[in-house]
Amino acid sequence: MSVAMPAAQNTVPSLSLPDLFARYHVGWETRDPSRIASLHSEDSVFHVHDGSEPVHGRDALRRHCAELFSRFDWSFEMGRRFYGADHWVFEWTMVLALREPGGAPFTARVEMLDVVTLNRAGEVARKDVFTNGAQAQAAFARAGIAR
């Protein structure tokens, strides 16, 4: 006698996309690498399109975020958000507190765009971050930071 195995069920997120975005964004606002990484899939890809290589996997992402938060002092200005069936697009401005090589503080603003794709479990499977390259280059050049 054979026993029928239950069909595999697709896992779907229990939260709406705006609620998932809010939960995810808290990790960035509070600079919590563990929280951010916990919301990504094990095989997640995080790619800042600034010439750097993509980060692969949850553990590598946690380390990447910790290094990023220790290196730069920045905050968010929220922009528009667009939600699809399994993704969101988020326009925002990064506000960086930097110093000129002589020590004088200044604030730089860099327009950003995130494209985040979720898997069926509601985990971030991929995050692509696009920067306004001219604004970023000007800010880092003024601060004497090679990029």
Provide a count of the helices.
Answer: 4
Order of helices and strands: HHEEHEEEEH
The description of the largest β-sheet is:
6 strands, mixed
**Average of per-residue pLDDT values:** 91
- Please give the CATH architecture: Roll
Query: How is the CATH topology named?
Result: Nuclear Transport Factor 2, Chain: A
Query: How do the strands of the widest beta sheet line up side by side?
Result: 2-1-6-5-4-3
Description:
By secondary structure, the chain is α+β, with helices and mostly antiparallel strands. The chain has a single domain, classed as Nuclear Transport Factor 2, Chain: A. Helix content is 29%, strand content 39%. It has helices at 17-29, 33-38, 58-71, 133-142; strands at 40-49, 55-56, 73-83, 87-99, 105-118, 124-131. The protein has a 6-stranded mixed sheet with strand order 2-1-6-5-4-3. The chain is globular, with a radius of gyration of 18 Å. The termini are far apart. The relative contact order is 0.18. The model is unreliable at 1-12 (pLDDT under 50).
Annotation keywords:
SnoaL-like; NTF2-like_dom_sf; 29% helix; 4 helices; 147 residues; Nuclear Transport Factor 2, Chain: A; SnoaL-like domain-containing protein; 39% strand
Helices and strands in order, then pairings?
Blueprint: H1 17-29, H2 33-38, E1 40-49, E2 55-56, H3 58-71, E3 73-83, E4 87-99, E5 105-118, E6 124-131, H4 133-142
Parallel strand pairs: 1-6
Antiparallel strand pairs: 1-2, 3-4, 4-5, 5-6
Protein name: SnoaL-like domain-containing protein
Domain SnoaL-like: 23-126
